[in-house]
Amino acid sequence: MPNGPSLNIPELGHFALALACCLALAQTVLPLIGAHRREIRLMATAPALALGQLGALAVSFLCLAQAAITDDFSVQNIAENSAVAKPLLYKITGIWGNHEGSILLWCLILALCGGAVAAFGRNLPAGLRARVIAVLGGTAAGFELFCLTTSNPFDRIWPAPMDGQGMNPLLQDPGLAFHPPILYTGYVGFAVPFAFAVAALLEGRVDAAWGRWVRPWAVGAWCFLTCGIALGSWWSYYVLGWGGYWFWDPVENASLLPWLTGTALVHSAIVVEKREALKIWTVLLAIGTFSLSLSGTFLVRSGILNSVHAFANDPARGVFILGLLGLVIGGSLLLFALRAPRLAAGGIFAPLSREGALVLNNILLCSICAVVLTGTMYPPFASLLFGATISVGKPFFDATAAPMAIPLFAVMAIGPMMPWKRAHLAPVLTRLWWAALGGLFAGLWAAIGLRGLLPALAFGFAVWVILAAGADIAQRIQMFRLPPSQSWRRARTLPRAALGAAIAHAGVGVTVIGLAGMSQAAHRIVEVHAGDTVDMAGYQWRLVDVADAPGPNYTARVATLVISRHGHTVAVLHPSKRTFASQSTTTTEVAIHTNLITDLYAVLGDEHRGVAGQPDTAVLRLHDNWLAPWMWLGALVMAIGGALSLSDRRIRVGAPRRATAGLSVGGRLA
Amino acid sequence: MTRKSRRLWLLVACGIGLGSASALALDAFSANIVFFVAPSQLLATPANGRTVRLGGMVVAGSLHEAHRSGEPVAQFQVTDGQKAVQVRYAGILPDLFREGQSVVALGELASDGTFAASEVLAKHDETYMPKEVAEALRKSGKWNPKFGPAPSAASWNRMSVKTDTTRGS
Question: Is Transcription there in the keyword field (chain B) (predicted)?
Answer without folding.
Answer: no
